[in-house]
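One record is given unchanged without comment:
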Amino acid sequence: MRNEPDLKKRTKAFALRILKLVDALPKTTAGRAFVSQIVRSGTSVAANYRSACRAKSTADFVAKMSIVEEEADETLFWLELLEESELVTAAKLTAIKQEANELIAITVASIKTARRNRGSNSALRIPTSAFE
């Protein structure tokens, strides 16, 4: 569990990057729609990861991390759509899309590890990162 604080910081930093991104979007109907969707899903990644860190059981951890995965993937969808809409250049979205992909990969690996470890022993084992 040594990487829990690192991933908490990383998901929070991702949420802050999302907030800065949406502040730069145009105040058009399309821009406002993107703001609404991206803010909700992008900040939810950090909030739900924080919740997963306080899971009561491995099953609870897996359920909460599944929400993190869904929200990160939804955020990636909106970022891809934003790029395709040409409201923001692809170059400006490269780094944040890469971070979304990495957070998804870490989350999926953590879920797989938790499921694999669920039956390994009777002690509660809740991995918080794929990098343990």
User: Anything to note?
Assistant: Confidence is low (pLDDT under 50) at residues 128-132. The helical segments are 4-23, 29-52, 58-85, 90-118. The domain at 4-118 is CATH 1.20.1440.60 (de novo design (two linked rop proteins)). The chain has four helices and no strands.
